[in-house]
Amino acid sequence: MSRPLHRGVSGMRISANGHDSWDSEMKDRAEKEGFDKDHSVDQSYIALSTGSPRSRHNFTMLFLKFSLVLIVILALTGSFWWAISISTSSRGHIYHGYRRLQEQLVSDLWDIGEISLGSSKSKEVEFCSEEYENYVPCFNDSLNLALGYSKGEEFDRHCGHELKQNCLVLPPVNYRIPLRWPTGRDVIWVANVKITGQEVLSSGSLTKRMMMLEEDQISFRSASLMFDGVEDYSHQIAEMIGLRNESSFIQAGVRTILDIGCGYGSFGAHLSSKQILTMCIANYESSGSQVQLTLERGLPAMIGSFTSKQLPYPSLSFDMLHCARCGIDWDQKDGILLIEVDRVLKPGGFFVWTSPLTNPQGFLRKKENQKRWNFVRDFAEKLCWELLSQQDETVVWKKTSKASCYSSRKSGSGPSICGKGHDVESPYYRPLQDCIGGMQSRRWIPIEQRRTWPTRADLNKKELAVYGVQAEEFAEDTENWKTAVNMNAHFGGFNSALLQKGKSAWVMNVVPTIGTNYLPMILDRGFVGVLHDWCEVFPTYPRTYDLVHAEGLLSLETGHQHRCSTLDIFTEIDRILRPEGWVIIRDTASLIESARALTTTRLKWDARVVEIESNSDERLLICQKPFFKRQAS
């Protein structure tokens, strides 16, 4: 059962933690108190006793609020003693009635707050200036340099230094809705991304040079030899591993690949037809961004840096890491970057490195380059990696499947094993470690011993125990999502349900840092995801996703007071959502009503609330972001 589409301010609600309304009220009160300091007590008293319409209105509102609070206190006290005396058999029915009473109380409080605060609360959020079209907060290298960050740390993510402003990011003047998949994977509109024709023509890497500029489009499916080169390159890697071709990656246990410095995603685009999920990760670039173009093609990507912080993934996350001329000097910083590769690589996984540095016929003729290559090769051996093959500029290593390899090394040879205090599953903003991680995890399972895709997505009771999840809980989550596919990722059930319905879509499973960390289980099932704090900006460019889904996120955030406002979260969702994109939120009825009011009045979204028959305490909020266009100057 659904409700009609709502617009305007009617029926506005907030949750019991309505921070926005109280913050505005406190601000008005602070301004009034500041004014009163410059006036005598008599003047304040006269202003109160003159009975002006404004003062009578304020007095009435204060009286109403006080009376309502008093009634609530008396009602809660009475219900507490009454609850003690009732029988156990009737408590369930009374609880549900009490929940409805609480929701109505929240609604009444919001209505009173709206009357007292006037129309200022429902003011629409303004549009950002043009400079924000492709801007990503927290990645301001010039500001970071001014703050003293150096040695590559200026390219890292640093939030909290910029003034936060809530505004809606408009698309470029000539922006067009992306083409449908899979056509949109191979052809994108030039105006949708920040890249010039000259940058297209001068792109240097293998995957970048595959682009062709055709009037108002960039084509990635050219019939040139360079396009054929990606297929040959993928085939070469498979043969170096000992496989017939790249179609055999799945049988070898390779389902997820982290592509470092991915060019414009052509390696992952080619493998997507082989059921391989490739996550692109690259530094922030103000123009000609690898991540932005990869996302515009509808492929998984996010901004990330290897410089000083661990990647936002648990240990043992990916089956393969790939670096083709990715610009990272693996021999620097005493090998700590290679240690991070080892941390996120599953046992038995592969590290593929393509670089002129590894070519014995070219760069290695120079003594300095030979020294750098020797360091990487020797350090990889200390990490218990096996050098499988070396052809031309490409080298393939295999991480050990035997944990005993580390203890069999000579004393003092290579990095030590991380202790429990350093080997964690939630590496959010953690500095790079100089010890080998993942050894303390119960998830140390070689990829060749795991079930192959897609059966690995369905975990059995023994596998679920590794993550502390009950089989009944997992089955219920799976069944709920099968029904629902008609940003709290939970177990990745939304992703699984889409696949079972035969939908050719990938899901970025975002696990909130303030909740239970189910990301290890999501990654082990063969999906992609990331840890994220929703009170910060998501590490991506504007207009990234077609749909944003969140279950229980509002309840989770309201349970942690004073972190950020609901408006902060929704303006960030608006930033990363494409024009005409969708938002689906599942939460308690009171929070959903509050969110509907906010999205329709302040963000200008179209929104409706849908009742969930199986659960009367929850609702679905379904929204669509309009396509607002900036006027050409």
Helix segment tally = 20
Distance, first to last CA: 45 Å
Taken as a percent bin, the fraction of beta residues is 15-25%
Strand order of the largest sheet: 6-5-4-7-8-10-9
Instruction: Name the poorly predicted regions.
Output: 1-54, 86-120, 204-208, 222-228
Radius of gyration: 28 Å
Number of strands: 16
Sheet having the most strands:
7 strands, mixed
Give me the secondary-structure category: alpha/beta
* Portion in helices: 25-40%
Protein name: S-adenosyl-L-methionine-dependent methyltransferases superfamily protein
Keywords: Methyltransferase, Transferase
Report what the structure shows:
The structure is a single chain. The protein has 633 residues and is of the alpha/beta class. The protein is built from 20 helices and 16 strands. A seven-stranded mixed beta sheet has the order 6-5-4-7-8-10-9, sandwiched between helices. The protein has a four-stranded mixed beta sheet with strand order 13-14-16-15. A hairpin with a 6-residue loop joins strand 15 and strand 16 (618-624). The longest helix has 33 residues, at 53-85. The chain is globular, with a radius of gyration of 28 Å. Residues 1-54, 86-120, 204-208 and 222-228 have low confidence and may be disordered.
